[in-house]
Every structure is written in C-alpha cells, then in structure tokens.
Specification:
single chain; mainly alpha; Dna Ligase, domain 1; 9 strands
C-alpha cells in the first residue's frame, strides 16, 4: 500500500515537471485529495521523509517541497525620512540687529547733515530779504519770524544758540537784510548791530492793471527795476499752492498775468526784487487759498479758467452785479460751443495791443490765441489782474439765458439779450448803432 501511495506522489511530481516545460509556472501549491490517503502516513525517500496528512502532502526534504510552498520574500520599501533643520534664530537676530543699527546710523547722519546745513547756512539761495524786527520781540519771537520767512528751519535750536551767545537783551530792532545762506552766527551778529531804519514807499495796484503797468509803478517809486520785476515775477516759484494751478502754455504772454493781486503794499526803497515778488505772491496766496481752489473744483472749472474769466469781467464792467450777469453770458456761450464757438469780447483787444507793444517780432499765433473773435472759447490766459469782486463773479455767476450784452458809452447802462434780434434792438437803445 505504501508503494502505491509513493507511486501516486511520484506521478504528481512528474506531471508538474511536464507542465513547467510547457511554459506554465506553477505558483500555487498542489495538494492531493485526502480521500485516498490515510491520516498520518509517512514515506521515506532518499535525502528525506514524505509525510501525508489528510488533505495535504508535506515534504520534509527541502528539495522535494512544491514550489507553491516556497516562501516568497519581498523587499520592504520605506519612505526616506526627511531631515528637519532647525532655524538658527540667533543668526537671524544678529542680522535684524545689524540692520537696525545701520538704519539708525543713516537717520542720525542725515539729521546731523540737515541741521548742520541750516546752522552753517549752507544754501545756494543768495536772494536778500529785508525784514523788520519789532522793538518788543524776544529771541524766540525773532526765531519764529525767521522761520516763517524761510530763513531758518529750526527756530528752537536757533533760540537756544542765540540765548547762549547774546541773550534777549542784545538784539536791536529795525530793518535787517538777511539771506538763506547766512549761518546762525552771522544772523545773530546782524541782529546784534544797531541799524538805521530803511526808507519805505506805499504802492497801490488797482484792479485791471497788467504786469507791465505794475512794473512801471514800482520803477517810478524807486522800489526796483521794471524789467527785473517782470522777469522775477514770471520765473520765480515760491512754493505757494496757487502756483501749481497756473498754466505754462507756450501761447501765454506772461505766465503769471492775472496773479498779481491788486492791493496796497509797502515796499522798501531799493529792496531786492526777490523780496518784492515774494510779498506780492504772499498776498495772492491769501486770496487764492485752499478754499478758493476747492470752490473752483466744485464748480467744475480750473483756477486758470476762473482767473481768465475774472480778468475779462474786470475790463468789461468792474461792477459786481453786472459782472455776474456778463459772466452768465460768457458761460452760456462756453456751454454751447456748437452755436456760439467764440466769446467775441472787445476786452481782449486791449491785451493784444500789450503783446504787440512788448514783442520785437510779430507773434501772430499768440495774438490769435488771445483774440476772442478768432480763438474758440477762453483766450490763452488772463488779460489783466482782476480784483476780488471780479474773481467772485467768475466763480459765482448769475443764472440767466443771456447770450448777448452791450452797454451805453454815455450812461454806462447794460443791456442783455437771449437772441440776436433782441441784441440788435439793444444796440440801438444803447446808441451804439453806426
């Protein structure tokens, strides 16, 4: 019986070998049916023992074990562990500290340089200022006065230094000539000297004057040269807010025509032209202040447009209520350029004569830019220096439907019309019909 069992096992092995030769791999364990084999039967073979149990064949010899019983060993692949680097906070702290030290050093250096420049008077501005020192002023009052006039930048530092040098009692009142390039010691020395009061002159600029007119008045009163004043007034910039709203059009005859506010001024005889222009522009800045600029913007107009309109109104009438009516005529035309492209005001003809008189060559393009019978809309710029009422009328015109106006040369009465036919009748009534 044992031989029969052994033969059966050998035949199973031989069948496996045949199947391998045919290219079919046997990866599963071949087992005999336990119905033909009794439990616990063993058979000895060369090199080992074969044991039979119910439902399985077990080969104790390693060479006789079926392939299905071989243990398959697979490699275990584990993820590579990442190395966690710890931040070197001490190094970062050192970098931050060094950066702070460098920044602080730069700030301190800049501060020392700026303060040093002011103390030593290192400035390229050599323009002279004539200032008046009141008799009851302290060093602190004088320091604030010098600061307000742009002579010094640090009034508290100047006050402390001056008190160490001369105290409050050794400063003389009166007129003093200063420059931005003067150092603190030079300013204190000038304040400590007895001075003669310089002669002054009172000058009044009336509404409607041009810059040429004002320059001639200054020269007649021995304040300064007319040519020097015209050049300085149109080129020097003092940093006032209104200056940034002035047009720099190449068609303008004078850049700052219209921005010399008519008023009464007191000037030193023979004063520097820089000082004179500065005093006039300070007054202009008081009128054309931030509130005025904001009103222009709220009205949808530029500062230049308002001042240009005001200069026309000033020459057309000069009377408050009439200027507001005339302003409505011009603004109505500006709002309907397809019907009324030109303002056609004779007031601009007067300024054209100023241009022709002051130019050595014929500037036809510039003349056309001011001629409201040629150009469309407003002229290239203001045609005179308007007063406060004219500026107010240009900013707050009356609301009308007028497109025409005229006035009687004899009575000064104004006539307004909505249509050209009405305007023709008004011309007859005003005695203007030729």
């Amino acid at each position: 019986m044992r031989d029969d069992i052994f033969d059966t096992y050998l035949r199973s092995i031989m069948n496996k070998s045949d199947r391998k030769k045919e290219g079919t791999e046997e990866n599963t364990e071949t087992a005999s049916s336990g119905s033909d084999l009794p439990d616990g039967v063993e058979n000895e073979t060369e090199g080992g023992t074969i044991s039979f149990e119910k439902g399985s064949v077990i080969a104790t010899d390693e060479r006789l074990k079926p392939a299905a019983q071989e243990e398959i060993i697979r490699p275990v692949i584990r993820g590579k562990r990442k190395r966690i680097r710890k931040a070197n906070y001490s190094a970062y702290g050192g970098i931050v500290l060094a950066t702070l030290v460098i920044c602080c050093s730069i700030i301190i250096s800049l501060f020392v340089i700026v303060v040093g420049r002011d103390f030593l008077g290192i400035d390229t501005d050599e323009n002279r200022f004539t200032l008046y020192i009141e008799s009851n002023w302290t060093i602190s009052d004088i320091a604030d006065y010098l600061y307000e006039n742009g002579i010094i930048q640090y009034p508290k530092l100047f006050t402390q230094y001056a008190k160490l040098q001369v105290g409050d009692g050794a400063v003389y009142p009166g007129d003093i000539e200063v420059k931005r390039s003067m150092s603190y010691p030079e300013l204190i020395e000038a304040l400590s000297e007895a001075r003669d009061v310089l002669p002054t002159v009172t000058v009044t600029f009336t509404e409607g004057l041009t810059i040429d007119d004002c320059a001639r008045i200054l020269e007649e009163n021995e304040v300064c040269s007319a040519d020097e004043f015209i050049f300085a007034f149109n080129t020097n910039i003092y940093g006032f807010d209104f200056e940034s709203h002035v047009s720099s059009s190449g068609m303008k005859y004078y850049k700052y025509e219209g921005y010399l506010f008519p008023d009464t001024y007191e000037f030193y005889v023979g004063d520097s032209v820089y000082n004179i222009v500065r005093k006039i522009k300070e007054r202009t800045d008081e009128i054309m202040n931030a509130d005025f600029i904001r009103e222009c913007q709220d009205a949808g107009r530029t500062v230049e447009e308002v001042i240009t309109m005001a200069s026309i109104l000033q020459l057309e009438s000069g009377v408050g209520e009439e200027m507001k009516n005339i302003a409505s005529v011009f603004y109505n035309r500006l709002e309907h350029p397809d019907i009324y492209p030109r303002l056609q005001t004779d007031a601009t003809n007067k300024y054209i004569e100023v241009i022709k008189k002051g130019s050595m060559v014929e500037l036809q393009e510039m003349i056309d830019a001011y001629d409201t019978y040629v150009c469309q809309g407003l002229p290239a710029g203001p045609i005179c220096n308007p007063g406060k009422e004219a500026i107010d009328a240009a900013l707050h015109p009356n609301e009308t439907n007028y497109y025409f106006f005229c006035s009687s040369a004899e009575t000064g009465e104004f006539y307004y019309a909505e249509t050209y036919a009405e305007h023709q009748e008004n011309i007859k009534a005003a005695g203007l019909e030729v």
